[in-house]
Write a structure and sequence with these properties.
2 copies of one chain form a homodimer. The first copy, chain A, has helices spanning 10-17, 21-28, 36-49, 55-62, 78-93, 107-120, 134-142, 167-180, 196-211, 228-238, 253-266, 283-287, 299-314, and strands at residues 67-72, 97-102, 125-128, 147-150, 161-164, 185-189, 221-223, 247-250, 275-277, 294-296, 322-325, 328-330. By secondary structure, chain A is α/β, with parallel strands linked by helices. Chain A is elongated, with a radius of gyration of 26 Å. Chains A and B meet through helix 4, helix 5, strand 2, helix 6 and helix 10 of A and helix 4, helix 5, strand 2, helix 6 and helix 10 of B. Chain B binds a DNA duplex (16 and 16 nucleotides) through residues 7, 9-11, 19-26, 28-29, 31, 33-35, 38, 53-54, 56-63.
Chain lengths: 343, 343
DNA sequence: TTGTATGCGTTATCAC
DNA sequence: GTGATAACGCATACAA
């Protein structure tokens, strides 16, 4: 940018106002101990010259860049884009920018991206989930950089967090199905490697099922990437089992959408012949037919709190090491007793 | 960050390698005219010391920050988050970071955000659509900053663009309905102020309808914010018209989802009693029941090309002023002849 | 091909 | 309270 354009510099403002550059800097940064008179002179000069501070120079001298980094698996998942959207809006209130990097669920790429963001000079960073390579932690400590994880609720001295319990609501969903009379329950899950949220949900499902004295055999669990089409594919696979499962626990709403659509296409009535659950409570889950039984995750709230907390950490304030928000099961119309309830 | 930690500096590397700081810098920046021998010495020293360049200092000295800015109305729209996702991944290949700002469809806020991003030192920026305040253009010119608009195809010497025609496919959708025999067509549109895409689509709808000798009265157009719930609300309003419209043209897929869900809830069969169209072709549109007739917008392709083009501009290469990609109408199952076709 | 020296635009540490 | 001035860490014109 402006490789040859002569910008207005702090020095110009100082000359215009008849004060020192230090004073101009003080006024601009709301430093204490500045007289009203000086402040007015400087502000007038700034206005007259249309001065705009040079962010990079400021960053070099102050060692703060005015931006944080967010590392997310993907923005293709509405639940993450919603979180990022709310995070960015809140950061703006603190006059803080957002640098984004995605890593397609590859923890190695996460670390690489983190490294470049740190090199870029970010003042802090937020990661999704609890699963990370040790190298990530090392980077934060090495650079004494404020950081935060979110979207999970695991207690861990190394990883401060703002999130919610993924296992408990999953457990409740499975219990709900069991209470309805389901005995043949299948699961569609995202790959659990490097994804503690998926792992926790699967664990919740399994724990509830086995606690009820039922089984969750391996062939009743389909692991598949995130996506509507993938949900449909997994559905097809599970419907080939005999006896056919009467209920499907899906690791997230989008997988559930795929399953529901595939069921409709196959002429399988939901919830009469098959119950389906999701996780996330995307807007659409409330409106689709049948409305989806799922878990409401507080994406916006997480975004806001992450902004508040990370900014506080950057300013050196102490904040809670762990904040657990509520993720509530929402019972709707996609779950009902199995066809032959009462057997 | 590392407020007191003593980092390894370029100077340390130079000393370790027994060369000058300039030489180290040259090796690190892949400058021409460096001997193999020197390169090896420097690289070895870098490895030994674990040296990582300081991004901010580099930015100040080189006047390039290694990041571009993207200004989007919202990330809550999957079509934008998909574009940003693909943009970010492509930029990574160029070793370029992404700064994001959202402006909730307020052009004034767009300019404000642009100003702070420029102050932040971005090397270039991309905006969505063709509608912007003159102040935005002025900022780009003033700072001699490479920039680009996308998601539209308007010819304009001021605004280089990578996008697609929004009006023509909209026109085709309306024609398709008319060809099917529809005579009472209604429209759900996003607010057109500051949103040339919505305006172009509405224009396409209207032009086709009026060209066919039909009317599109004001009460057949509902303007409403983006969202599933909003689509449902608009649907309810339009269904109160008499005679009831037999077809609904929606400005985007999400509004169409809302309409379809509301119709299902109201017991109105799609497409037998009512035809519905969207615009965007989100993944779900292909899988939902009935599959949605819509327009496939090349979100990923736009993201990739924007990255390629903007990086080229930053490097001083000349690129096409305007790239028009294809946005194709996709006929599916949500459109059919009206109930009383043949009247 | 390599080294020297200066500039990049602020902030922050001293004195006064 | 205010003003000099030395960092901040690297890139680059210029010299060698």
């Amino acid at each position: 940018m402006n490789r040859d354009v002569k910008r207005t510099l702090l020095e110009d403002v100082a000359r215009e106002a008849g004060v020192s550059t230090a004073s101009v800097s003080r006024v601009l940064n709301a430093a204490p101990h500045v007289s009203e008179r000086l402040r007015h002179k400087v502000e007038a000069a700034v206005d007259r010259l249309g001065y705009v501070p040079h962010g990079t120079a400021r960053a070099l001298a102050s060692r703060r860049i005015g931006a944080i980094g967010a590392l997310v698996p993907t923005l293709d998942n509405p639940v993450f884009s919603a979180m990022i959207d709310s995070l960015e809006r809140r950061l703006k209130q603190y006059d803080c920018r957002l640098l984004i990097a995605t890593y397609r669920y590859s923890l190695a790429e996460e670390v690489e991206s983190l490294r470049t963001l740190i090199q870029q000079g970010i003042d802090g960073a937020v990661l999704i989930g609890h699963d990370h390579l040790p190298a990530a932690l090392q980077l934060f400590q090495q650079h004494e950089l404020p950081y935060l994880t979110c979207w999970h609720s695991q207690e861990d001295p190394d990883w401060p967090s703002i999130g919610f319990d993924n296992a408990a609501p999953a457990h409740q969903l499975a219990e709900h199905l069991i209470d309805l009379g389901h005995r043949h329950i299948a699961v569609i899950t995202a790959p659990v490697e490097g994804n503690d949220r998926a792992r926790a949900r699967l664990h919740g499902f399994r724990h509830a099922i086995e606690t009820a004295g039922l089984a969750l055999p391996d062939d009743h669990i389909v692991t598949i990437d995130y996506g509507i089409e993938e949900g449909a594919t997994a559905f097809a696979e599970l419907m080939r089992l005999t006896p056919r499962p009467t209920a499907l626990l899906c690791g997230n709403d989008v997988l559930a959408f795929g399953a529901v659509f595939a069921a409709q296409r196959a002429g399988i009535a939901i919830p009469e012949q098959l119950s389906v659950t999701g996780f996330d409570d995307l807007t659409q889950s409330r409106f689709m037919q049948p409305a989806l039984t799922t878990v409401a995750t507080p994406a916006d709230e997480v975004g806001r709190r992450v902004a508040d907390d990370l900014v506080a950490r950057i300013q050196g304030r102490t904040t809670p090491h762990r904040q657990v928000l509520e993720a509530r099961v929402v019972l709707r119309d996609s779950t009902a007793p199995p066809p032959s309830a009462g057997d």
